[in-house]
Structure formats: C-alpha cells, structure tokens
Specification:
168 residues, 4-stranded mixed beta sheet, 2 domains, alpha/beta, 3 helices, 8 strands
C-alpha cells in the first residue's frame, strides 16, 4: 500500500505544479491584455508645465471681438455657471485656455504673463491688435538669435497684459 501512495503523490505534485504554472500564465496574460487595452483607451496628453489658462475679462463681448479679430479664429462660448467662457483655439489634445467673465474675474496689467500662439508669422497678428482695440506695449522682438522665434507684448481691450509668440 505504501508504494501506491508514493505512486499517486508524484502525479499529484506534478498536477499541482502544472496547475499553478497554468494559472500564473493565464493571470499574466490577462494583466498584460488589460494593461494594453488601458493604454489604448487612455487619452494622450503632452507633458507640460501648463495645462489650462484663463484670461479674465470685464466685458465679454468686447473681449471676444478683440481675441477673434486678433487671432483670426472664432471663440466657442461655454457657460460654466456663473462663468461665461470663450474657448481660445487649441489643437485636439493640446493646451487650451479661455477668456472668462464672472465673479472674481478681474483683468490685470501685472502678474502672470500668457503667451498666445500667433501662428506662422507674428507680424500678421500684430497688424490686427490696434484695429481690434488693443495696444502694443512691445513690438515684434526677436528672442536671442532668433532660434526661439519672436514675441510681442500687448494690452487687450480689458487691460490685461498678454504676449504673442511665433517662429517668424
């Protein structure tokens, strides 16, 4: 009888070992599959110090007309009670911002400075600033030797100091 137990014990150990190995393989495969699925469905966001910005405005319609004229692009309006927002143009998945009117939204000529993308050539956007009601503070200026492009500082219709940037 002792020999029968030994004979059965060896196959049981082998079966247990094979079962553990199969379970481990199955779990590993499932985890890898779930991880790959999660990676595929997760939105891709660029890594940046800036995620979102808001430019405070007192007169929403006046500010909207200014930014639409200067950037030659429409601002889509959105209400986030009690705030009225005009979404500035941004590529899908890119960093965006908005002009915002509402409680606590006070335009300022000092503090943080937001650089807006002026497109391919800064000169084009700069020609639109004053006719749209803004004021040029610093005209188009080369950054260093020009490898970082050009910038300009201006004041919008609300009194905010903002900057424009382009590579030309």
């Amino acid at each position: 009888m002792a020999s029968r137990k030994k004979g059965k014990a060896a196959p049981r150990k082998a079966v247990k070992k094979a079962a553990k190995k199969a379970i481990k393989k199955s779990v590993t495969k499932t985890v890898k599959k779930q991880s790959a699925t999660a990676k595929q469905s997760s939105p891709k966001f660029p890594t940046s110090a800036l995620n979102w910005f808001e430019i405070p405005v007192a007169d929403f319609e006046r500010a909207r007309a200014f930014y639409e004229a200067m950037l030659a692009a429409p601002l889509n309006e959105m209400m986030v009670d009690p705030f009225r927002m005009g979404m500035l143009p941004a590529e899908e998945g890119g960093i965006g911002g908005a002009i915002v009117a509402g409680p606590g939204c006070v335009p300022a000529s000092s503090g943080s400075l937001v650089y807006l993308n002026a497109g391919e050539d800064l000169s084009i956007a700069m020609r639109r600033v004053e006719p749209a009601g803004g004021k040029v503070i610093v005209s188009k200026t080369r950054i260093g030797d020009g490898q970082w492009g050009y910038f300009a500082l201006l004041q919008d219709t609300e009194g905010n100091r903002i900057a424009l940037h382009s590579m030309k």
